[in-house]
Amino acid sequence: MTSPALPTSDVPTISREQLAAALRARRVTLVDVLSPESFAAAHLPGAINLPVADVGRRAEAVMPDRHAPIVAYCGGPT
Amino acid sequence: MGLLTGLGYTNVRHYAGGLAEWMGTPHAVSGPPPDLRRTPSDAPLTSHGAPRTSYDAPRTSHRLQPFTSARFVEALADQTVGGLFRLWLTIVGVCGVAYWCLGWFPGHVLQTNGAPIRSDALGVLSALYFSAVTATSVGYGDLVPLGAARLLAIAESIAGLVIFGCLISKFVSRRQEELIGEIHRIAFEDRLGRVRTNLHLVRTEVQATARLCDGQEMAPPVAVARVESIAMVFVGELLVVHDLLYRPQQTPDEPVLEAILASLASVLREFSELLRCVADARTGYPVTLRPNVAAMSRLAAEICGDCVPRQYAPALHNWMDQIQRIAGELAQI
């Protein structure tokens, strides 16, 4: 069984420290791909919720700028 | 994430550590991110009853927030009692030496009875004494600052007051924090007990309703109504269990968790059979049932050994994987 995250081999990763620095500088859009329920229970500060299933449908509305820096995360190490 | 790049997003990165890593090492980051809500355990995560961000509010244009005095006070409040006291002493010491050094410039000295303080070791002691009297905002007035020393004295007394206030509030809040911790613990145990009871009740209700369905071509309306109310309660319980697994601040003992997961798995299985009876072969679930079933399968799909943020014993893994499997079947009806 795999986590709800998607295969990520072709996407560069970001470390916790880099992410924390980027969040403090407010330079990234942080995307939580878990379910709304999980998001309601706990999420990283400043994250927006975009469940994997909704990515295709709602990405455009949530993140209009396709060249803006985005960081996505899910439940745990994948 | 590959999906996002597929949609044309060019600057996507993946935070591989995810929720688990972020919450697991709360102190690796110096200073929490700015918009962080303080939780009792000080873990850097926001926790709300409902999703906070509306979907139509993109956060791409962030405003830079100035360093406000409120945030300064908050940074002070993060210090320990000892840290605050040391900070206060440091300010007294540094300012004391500064008053003494200012004595080199005529017009900016400390003076007593109209004469400047001495420039030797005794003078340092006098300056430190004045500094302490100022920082505590006592201000006897036996030593009087002049010129730039006045500015420094005002700055010192303000800083001294703020830090002293934080120190006092720390002392007072310590007991409160203990109490809050105790309340959290009791509430947590209460919640565990309730989950187990509720799962049991749901199961009894599922079995009773399944009997209504037995041998019927179509589910009687009364059965559908009962299934609806069961689904509502069950989603709540599922959310609680999901929470237990995804929020690592408080985790029950593994035997307790195993009992809960086992009963959740069996209730979920029986419930999915019951749902099969209610569902129509052509139209699927009744409309009123759909949101709850969707929430149920989504939540249950996230309960599996490999996707929860923590590592558990193999037996627990097993139960979680079962729950996820049943959720998959549920979504297919």
The arrangement of helices and strands of chain A along the chain is HEHEHE
Report the C-alpha radius of gyration of chain B, rounded. Answer: 32 Å
Mean pLDDT across all amino acids of chain B: 79
Order of strands, main sheet of chain B, comes to: 3-2-4
What name does CATH use for the topology of chain A? Oxidized Rhodanese, domain 1
Structural class based on helices, strands and sheet pairing of chain B: mainly alpha
Roughly what is the average pLDDT of chain A, rounded to an integer? 77
Please bin the fraction of helical residues of chain B. 55-70%
Largest sheet of chain A: 3 strands, parallel
The topology string of helices and strands of chain B comes to: HEHHHEEHEHHHHH
Name the quaternary structure.
heterodimer
Specify Rg of chain A, calculated over alpha carbons: 12 Å
Task: Catalogue the unreliable spans of chain B.
Answer: 26-64
Task: Give the helix tally of chain A.
Answer: 3
Shape of chain B: elongated
Counting DSSP H or I runs of 4 or more residues, the number of helices of chain B is: 10
* N-end to C-end Cα span of chain B: 28 Å
Name given to the CATH homologous superfamily of chain A: Rhodanese-like domain
What is the CATH C level class of chain A, in words? Alpha Beta
Strand order of the largest sheet of chain A: 2-1-3
Layout of helices and strands, plus pairs?
The complex is a heterodimer of chains A (78) and B (333).
Chain A lengths: L15 H9 L4 E4 L3 H6 L6 E2 L5 H8 L7 E4 L5
Parallel strand pairs in A: 1-2, 1-3
Chain B lengths: L1 H5 L5 E3 L3 H7 L44 H9 L3 H22 L7 E3 L2 E2 L4 H15 L8 E2 L2 H66 L7 H26 L7 H25 L11 H12 L12 H19 L1
Antiparallel strand pairs in B: 2-3, 2-4
